[in-house]
Structure formats: C-alpha cells, structure tokens
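WARN retry 2 of 3 for item q-0093 after timeout on previous attempt; input resubmitted unchanged.
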Amino acid sequence: MLAGVSIAVESFESADGLRLVVALDVELGALYPPENRFGARFTAHHAEEGRGTFLVARLDGLAVGCGAFTLLDPQTAEVKRMFAAPEARGRGVGHAVLRELEARAQALGVGRLVLETGIHQHDAIRLYERAGYERTNCWGDYAGSATSVCYQKLVAED
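OK item q-0093 returned
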C-alpha cells in the first residue's frame, strides 16, 4: 500500500463518495456526449454487500479516489466508477484501488473482471493495460458506442 493511502468500503451515497462521483461525471461530461456516458447507471444497489462494492481511497485522510464493481453473473464482475482526483494522479491511487477491487471480487468467487472506458481516457487505458487487462469485445450498450474501449482480466486465487 502507498504511504499515507488507505482504501476502505464506504457507502456510494456518502458525502465523499458522492463528491468523487460528481467530479468523475464532470470530467466525463467534458469528454463525451450524454449517450456515451454510462456511469450514471451505477447506483448504490449495485454496490450492496454480496453484489458488489464501492471503495474510497484516502490520502492522508482526504478522499481522493474511488472505484467499484458489480456482479454481472456469479463469475464475472464489472469494474465501475474508477476515479482519482487530479491532485492524486500519478501517485498510484488508481492502481491501489483497482488491486483492492480485484481482491474483493475474488473473495466473492469472481474469476473474470471486465470494464469499459473511453477512447479519450488515455491515463485510464494505461492503468488498465499495466494492471494486466486485455482488450475484449464490448458488450451490451457499450458494443454500440464508438467511444468505448472494453477490457477483461482473468483473476485466479493465489
């Protein structure tokens, strides 16, 4: 774990969780038209225990990042709502959140993680590729989106 960084499950609807998600949505709104933004479909219901999780990363106590996953089926989870505040970027916060999400998904029996990101999110693409995610065909609404890039990673018990 990074010095000064803590990651914990928090309510998607907590003040810090909502603040981070709003900041993410503002960034996505500047990059993509509304029909190519899918994050708003993730709700607190998707992060309920046994179905998914929502994590908040804190750097020296300040909430600076978040990420979530939700089960698509018993073996597959989708990573959602990944965000690092601008002041925390390049410090490994996103990587730490992603690793914690992977560990928590594995604990639920997940063997495959999938995610969608946008073609304009170059830092996110680098993060996922460095973490071992490989490009895959997009699914569902993402399949029809010209701005979507989809990834998957098979995770195994250590």
